[in-house]
Specification:
The protein is α/β, with parallel strands linked by helices. It has helices spanning 13-24, 39-47, 69-73, 94-114, 154-172, 201-208, 224-236, 254-264, 279-288, 309-315, 322-335; strands at residues 4-7, 28-33, 56-60, 78-81, 118-122, 137-139, 178-184, 186-188, 218-223, 244-247, 250-253, 304-306. The protein has a domain at 4-187 and 222-249: 3-Layer(aba) Sandwich (Rossmann fold), CATH 3.40.50.720. Residues 342-356 have low confidence and may be disordered. Its EC number is 1.1.1.219.
């Protein structure tokens, strides 16, 4: 019998690709959704990549409640715990931290009770980053972000505390279930559906012309397909048990991404602004006009990078170049009509021609 893998949060961007790739590799997949009404949209999204007939099932479970998790884990061999509160901003930090931390513990309790072989949990590279945004250099999985650092945005704190809680739980557990965590960078690449764009929304804003200029922020770009691949390698490799794996990609500045889109897409990239906004302008706008930008200001000019040597050596993982991930992302957004492919007609989100 094919192994059964539970993927949490099947309607999410990364989770949807996990479901599709597991099915493509011959696994049976069960995925959690918050309500039965979401099952159809998940099935339709996955069907654009692979035929799920007879091998995809659903369980209703939410990270914020105990109900449903024991049923979801029944008969499961492995878990990819991908679901997490979305968004890097929140007026109430507890709205991110509580569900992320408590949700991870709910999944682990149910998984260990069910005798699951291994849980692979999606954390984030910024759970293994220096607390000081001014720090440059290269760090690895041995570093833990300080969750008490007052400069941390709620999302970064939530991912750190959730992963710490997961490892803390495993320290008190004495049984066969194993835990592995994967810490991705900025996730781009093609989409399965326009329903949930996740981080891909950045590329959509660039393509539409809504982003009139780009801040001096660097991203370690990883393609969603490569991120799914490292999750499955972490799920199946004996060497991965009890390990953290950074899954970041090539470091690029947002201005480099903009130039890749503008120059690599021809007319389809004509609305992309390649103008880099000075740091002081971003800070002024964040202070007086757009408070939502305040959380990105500490990252301006930061060039801390992460080493993926561990994933490459132990798992044989090889991510694709950032340029390929970004361009494939753009082509997919255009194909799904998230962004108009005719530069002759202005995007509905485009405020005007603007400088480049």
């Amino acid at each position: 019998m094919p192994e059964l893998v539970l993927v949490t949060g099947g309607s999410g961007y990364i989770a949807g690709w996990c479901v599709a790739e597991l099915l493509r590799r011959g696994y049976h997949v069960r995925t959690t959704v918050r309500s039965p009404e979401r099952e159809k949209s998940v099935t339709e999204a996955v069907s654009t990549a692979v035929d799920p007939a007879g091998r995809l099932s659903f369980a209703v479970a939410d990270l914020t409640a105990d109900e449903g998790w024991d049923t979801a884990l029944k008969g499961v061999d492995h878990v990819l715990h991908v679901a997490s509160p979305l968004g890097a901003t929140s007026d109430d930090p507890a709205a991110l931290i509580g569900p992320a931390r408590d949700g991870a513990l709910r999944v682990l309790r149910a998984a260990t009770a069910a005798g699951v072989r291994r849980v692979v949990m999606t954390s984030a590279a910024n759970a293994a980053s220096p607390s000081s945004y001014a720090t440059e250099g290269v760090t690895d999985e041995t570093l833990w972000t300080d969750p008490e650092d007052p400069t941390l945005i709620p999302y970064r704190r939530s991912k750190t505390l959730a992963e710490r809680a997961a490892w803390g739980f495993m320290e008190t557990y004495d049984g066969p279930t194993e835990l592995t965590t994967v810490l991705p960078g900025a996730v781009f690449g093609p989409i399965l559906t326009s329903d949930n764009l996740g981080s891909v929304g950045i590329v959509a804003r660039m393509l539409s012309g809504e982003m009139r200029g780009v801040p001096r922020i660097g991203l370690e770009v990883v393609d969603v397909r490569d991120l799914v691949d490292v999750h499955i390698r972490a799920m199946t490799s004996p060497a991965a048990a009890g390990q953290r794996f950074l899954a970041t990609g090539e470091f690029v500045w947002m201005a480099d991404m903009a130039r890749t889109l503008h120059d690599g897409l021809g007319e389809q990239g004509s609305r992309v602004s390649t103008r880099q906004v000075p740091d002081f302008v971003v800070r002024l706008v964040a202070r007086f006009r757009d408070p939502s930008l305040r959380e990105i200001t500490p990252a301006l000019g930061r060039r801390n990078r992460h080493s993926t040597e561990k994933a490459r050596t132990l798992l044989g993982w090889e991510p694709r170049p950032a340029r390929e991930a970004v361009l494939d992302c753009a082509h997919s957004l255009i194909a799904h009509k998230v962004v108009q492919d005719s530069p002759g007609r202005p995007s509905t989100t485009h405020p005007g021609p603007g400088p480049r």
